[in-house]
Structures
1.
Amino acid sequence: MAKEKRITKAYELAKEVYAQYGVDTDKAIATLANVEISMHCWQGDDVGGFEAGAGGTSGGIQSTGNYPGKARNGDELRADFAKAISLIPGKQRLNLHAIYAETNGKKVDRDELDISHFSRWLDFAKKQKIGVDFNPTFFSHPLAADNFTLSHPDNAIRKFWVRHGIACRKIGAAFGKALGKPAVTNHWIPDGYKDIPVDRLAPRKRLLKSLDEMFAAKVSTKDNLDAIESKLFGIGVESYTVGSHEFYMGYAVKNQKILTLDAGHFHPTESIADKLSAMMLYVPEILLHVSRGVRWDSDHVVVLSDDLKSLAEEIVRGGFLKRVHIGLDYFDASINRVAAWVIGTRAMSKALLIALLEPTAMLRELESAGDYTARLAMLEEIKTLPSGAVWDQFCLSQGVPVGSEWIDEMKAYERTVLASRK
Ligand code: RNT
Ligand code: ZN
């Protein structure tokens, strides 16, 4: 049987199965087609960036592996990104970091950056018809060498980073304005101590002051949305993180900022899925950094794990698709980096599809009737419903490779493009 015919036939059968559970598969596909997933540029070059004389990643994050073919400049990174999104169904966004500025060899310090240094990225986003998100880079810089930035005790250094944050909010707004959809600008700092601090309060007071100063600068809220990201620990910053969860949760609630939940920034068995329904009562929106920690915040490539599925379920069940920004945040240098983007983004999209295919109304009825036996039994039964057939149909309708077909395309790209990078 011809491939397309087989996929459509399987889909028609799946559609009937789901209909028995009161689920409309066409509707699920139509909803998914409009969900944007923000893909992080930094997977393409191990969080390197293009600053002249860059001395590797600092700030307690680390990408491990030395798979050949890493993008070495903006053109290569854009080509790789374009290749990746051609293999992924649905809508994507491009998530940029300040260190990906292109300054034509000129030294432009972080507090002097503006949208002109991202004009090639803007052209790219326009051409690809995708939105852009942005991040100040509060690491990999001489003034971040001691792991303090916005909470630095030296006021001149602290102010430098405040200016960087403001510059980045303006860049986010410029992207948002030019593209007609707001950029989410996410602020994460690595600040903290390797060993046991005595004064846990003073750095937090300084961070609070810096955030207030940074957010006081007038930047269009129509074009730029500010998010703040907490963390538990980093490599070399194990004992104390200034921007802890409680710190930012408090700040976000008080100032109605977007709270960023990174899946790798909590205790190893703590899932961020449960946090959505709680935080959504107090903050306007949430930004997710979908990641996969293995034993620690290792930023492994996202896969279709139970954690990922629960996260997608909570977004869909809560009706939060419009208030949750979905961003990916991982960096693996041990496998083909372009494939890493495709694997993680397809997994995120698949998880959302499975959540959209859930017979939630039926499950809720069982729950409110107090029939927890049937609730558990049903949750188990629906795990093996034919979501794969719906996924294939989604890929087909989006004009991207179905099933494992994309792997061959990726191998060809590796042979013809990546292999020539030495
Ligand atoms: C670090 C944070 C942060 C970074 C990116 C590169 O632990 O997760 O989001 O990964 O900004
Ligand atoms: Zn993150």
2.
Amino acid sequence: MKQTEFARRRKRLMQMMGKASVAVLPAARVAMRNRDADYPYRQDSDFHYLTGFDEPEAVAVLIPGRPHGEYILFCRERDPLMETWHGRRAGLEGAREHYGADDAFPIGDIDDILPGLLESCERVYYAMGVDDAFDAQVTGWIRRLKEQARAGVHTPSEFVALDHLLHDMRLYKSRSEITAMRRAARISAQAHVRAMQVCRPGMMEYEIEAEFLYHFKRHGCVPAYGSIVGGGENACILHYTENDAELRDGELLLIDAGAEHDYYAADITRTFPINGRFSAEQAALYQVVLDAQKAAIARVKPGAHWNEPHEAAVKVLTRGLLKLGLLKGQLRALIKQEAYRGFYMHRTGHWLGMDVHDVGDYKVGNAWRELEPGMVLTIEPGLYIAPGARVGKRKVAKKWQGIGIRIEDDVLVTRDGCEVLTRDVPKEIADIEALMAEADHHK
Ligand code: GLY
Ligand code: MN
Ligand code: MN
């Protein structure tokens, strides 16, 4: 992402904040894994969105209209010894030169400097309740100002949720954000195709996961979330991440994996037969999910409300379950009673962006939000018939048990409909079987 993009975002946010206000955002903290080993550092999405600055121990401050500069970055100073051990730092000069800060100060001086910056403002934009230690620090700055009230020091009178403005901005993807998301989608799609090609009975789930990690890393990406690679009945565990079981002949494999490229996520699920051929029952259930997914995608267009794709998916899924004898009764009554929930317990999608479950409101007041061009969402219906599944007192026929299916694509709302960013992975039964048969030839 170019520096001009970050500058444009800061400018827009400051326009919305207006004069006499200040925004304060902390960088993500380093998380300890064990002893001296950290978790891989990932900058906070909001912080990165406005700064492009990838280091920990930093605080960004935006003060619209401040004569001495609107954008102030507190960060770590250069330190040859620390950099020898832990890696390069931009330093104060780098913050100004490469990251567009009007002013930069050492993070260690923030308690001395920040109260003075707050003093001239009425409104503080800040995401409360995310980081307890930072909340306490902000409260401390305010207390310091209040204590000096008799000396004529002014204290801001309003605290405003920064997330409100920022997350609405993040919901509408710019041209360069869409470019990044297309790339994340393409790399992820290639990995899913590869998984279909290499899969065979007797492999372990983690061997398939390794294909994803290898492909993502080769393209400079990291997984956007913990990959789910679930063979057979493991597919019925929605957040299965052990990925340590053997893949068995005759069962399906559900893979939910996506890459994060330059801070933007893809989120793809495919389900395919481990031996390359769907059984009759697997194919029947799969087709219901696929039809539901297509019906839901068909509802993604400007003006449709958030829940329309979900409603479309639920209708097709319920009708399919009825036809296959998994549910009994009247279609409309079953939908109303949410009879499908034993087999379909999650919703049909979520916003997608820098976070896999991205920010942005799903409702405006009491009404579902309308879709608009530039929004990106997932469409991911599924059916999960767990071993021993029941409908009321009735046991589900054995032949369906242990089948879990989800099909998930990433969809961009366009001016006249939508574009499926992850369309490069086959999802039609015939296409998956053809791809796997072709790969079998070469094994
Ligand atoms: N991978 C998480 C999800 O599909 O929402
Ligand atoms: Mn998803
Ligand atoms: Mn997913």
